[in-house]
Design brief:
The chain is mostly helical and 580 residues long. It folds into four domains: 236 residues, MetI-like fold (Orthogonal Bundle); 31 residues, no CATH class; 35 residues; 218 residues, MetI-like fold (Orthogonal Bundle), CATH 1.10.3720. Helices cover 76% and strands 3% of the residues. Helix 5 crosses helix 7.
């Protein structure tokens, strides 16, 4: 008896009938799209509208402000993802490019965020003259600079630690580089990248205050949003408005945690690298709702099919491996390396020469020695603060990451703590230091790591959450406990992820020193000795020669830290701590 080629008509028509889950999922999805579309339309108004408008501290204005800020942060996140996949991949795949791009990335994340605005605002306003879109692009770019660097570091670390046996499988199946990227490397790096995306979204709140109040010469453009709301509330010393803004931030963080990051974390659990299934699987009510909604699945089907066809479209062309045993190949590789590194050295020497010419016109050698002395003080602060933050947050992160149920509880709390504007703590710190007559050189230092310590926590949680269950079972079966378990199991397992968090926290601490080594509240102003205070005073006084000198010295210290500490540790992690 022949079977029918097509299913019965009743079965086929049932695909187009909505299920009861569609009546829950579709209003949420359509509501989000409509709100964002309406907000995006209002963000393209003439520039004169926002130049003359004032920020209202009425709590009823906060929902609209929250939508605008969230849309800017999501746009910056999309740009950060594109940047991560391109920059991180090139740095990891090309040995020559990585030797230049990784130190550049470390320097970029240590450059003060406000420095990017001063160079880019005029360009973006010129792209859209008389329109709000120019200011919006400048704000999105400023938020992008607070999100992209740690995401790129995370993806770079994942690509450098892909297990060799998985790479060999892709080669044996004849996958092209394009297919290997989407089928192996992106899935392998997805867990760590997702946690860094959450950290980037949370950390971006700190810079929203600066990015939504843009100054160009004598003109100040204030974009409506939660950041400008907070800045106005602080300027007017309106504590009630500050409280309302924190409540709005908590609601927004909870919403995008439940509707965006929690579903992505649950979805990415299938990319865990292990041989046995995890005992506890992260769950998301919204992801389960989407999976059960029939119309949503039917609508997502063509998109999923197009994505799979895009991955498969690239023809599988076997590439002949280089014969490194050939003397001619080895000689050419050595000469290419010599030419490349010579070019990099020439560029570095030329840049240093330009800095020397610019600063020597108005400064003396005593100014250089002063800047280096302040740089050494800030360098010591950064090292000590990262060490103290690591001693506290690494055990906490391992404990949370290896308990998925606790991870789901702590995740939104940690996001809110990371998003809490650290500059709101400065008045409290100043008041306490003045009251108890404490030393500003010591007690202003913790402000540097207040907003950057979360990079360590988030990355350690990411590493512990993807730690293979079979390895944990082996350690339990062998009764490995106490310090031996930490030394042989936990710390090696999370060490590559910890490095990514520590590097991001280090760069963020250098960045935060500019605003942390000088703190004020009312008439009280405290100053700690350091390179951050040196740069802040040069910026305030308009002394661009000392500003350039300070940034150059900071970049030099960051490069030294990268080459002497982080790069050897990265090489050690790649060589000894791969899950192979």
């Amino acid at each position: 008896m022949n079977r029918p080629l097509l299913p019965p008509i009743s079965v086929r028509s049932a695909r187009f009938l909505p299920s009861r889950w569609d009546f829950l999922a579709l209003p949420i999805i359509l509501g989000v799209f409509v709100l964002f579309a309406h907000t995006a339309r209002s963000m393209s108004a003439p520039l004169s509208v926002i130049e003359t408008a004032t920020i209202s501290l009425d709590p009823s204005s906060l929902p609209a402000y929250a939508l605008m800020t969230t849309l800017r942060m999501l746009a910056a996140m999309l740009l950060s993802i594109i940047f991560t996949f391109t920059y991180g991949t090139l740095a990891a795949k090309s040995r020559r490019a990585g030797a230049l791009m990784v130190p550049m990335l470390d320097i970029l994340q240590s450059v003060p965020i406000l420095g990017f605005l001063s160079f880019t605002v005029t360009a973006f306003l010129g792209l859209f003259p008389g329109n709000q879109l120019g200011a919006e692009c400048a704000a999105v770019f400023a938020i992008f600079t607070s999100q992209a660097w740690n995401m790129a570091f995370s993806f770079y670390q994942s690509l450098r630690t892909v297990p060799s046996d998985l790479n060999e499988v892709t080669y044996s199946f004849g996958l092209s580089g394009w297919q290997r990227f989407w089928r192996l490397e992106v899935p392998f790096g997805m867990p760590g990248l997702i946690w860094n995306m959450m950290m980037s979204m949370s950390g971006g709140w700190f810079f929203v205050v600066a990015s939504e109040a843009i100054s160009v010469g004598n003109t100040t453009i204030t974009l409506p949003g939660i950041g400008s709301y907070v800045a106005t509330a602080i300027a007017q010393k309106n504590l009630a408005a500050v409280g309302w803004s924190l409540l709005a931030m908590l609601i927004v963080i909870t919403l995008y945690d439940q509707l965006l990051f929690r579903p992505i974390v649950a979805w990415a659990d299938k990319f865990r690298f292990e041989d046995s299934a995890s005992a506890t699987v992260p769950r998301s009510w919204f992801l389960e709702l989407l999976n059960r909604a029939r119309w949503v699945q039917e609508s997502a089907g063509p998109v999923s099919l197009a994505a799979r066809q895009l991955i498969r479209r690239r023809s599988i062309i076997p590439r002949a491996p280089l014969n490194f045993g050939d003397t001619t190949t080895l000689v050419s590789e050595k000469w290419i390396d010599r030419l490349w590194y010579s070019l990099v050295c020439l560029i570095a020497v030329y840049a240093l020469w330009q800095v020397f010419l610019y600063t020597s016109a108005a400064l003396e050698w005593s100014d250089v020695f002063t800047a280096f002395g302040y740089g050494f003080i800030t360098f010591v602060r950064v090292i000590l603060l990262i060490a103290l933050a690591s001693l506290f947050w690494v055990p906490v992160g391992v404990w949370i990451g290896m308990r998925p149920r606790w991870s789901q509880i702590v995740q939104p709390v940690a996001q809110f703590m990371a998003a809490f504007p650290a500059n709101l703590m400065f008045p409290v710190a100043v008041a306490l230091i003045v009251k108890f007559r404490l030393n500003p050189d010591i007690w202003l230092s913790p402000l540097m790591v207040l907003g950057t310590q979360w990079y360590i926590l988030f990355n350690v949680i990411a590493g512990a959450s993807v730690f293979p269950s079979d390895l944990k079972d082996v350690a339990t079966g062998m009764q490995i406990k106490g310090w031996l378990w930490w030394r042989k199991v936990a710390l090696p397992g999370v060490f590559p992820y910890y490095l990514t968090g520590a590097i991001s926290a280090s760069g963020g601490s250098w960045n935060a020193s500019v605003v942390s080594e000088i703190a004020s509240w009312g008439n009280e102003k405290l100053e700690a000795h350091g390179l951050g205070a040196y740069i802040a005073k040069a910026t305030e006084s308009g002394d661009y020669h000392r500003l350039v000198l300070g940034i150059a010295v900071m970049s030099l210290f960051v490069t030294i830290l990268n080459r002497t500490v982080w790069r050897p540790l990265y090489n050690y992690a790649e060589r000894r701590l791969k899950l192979s």
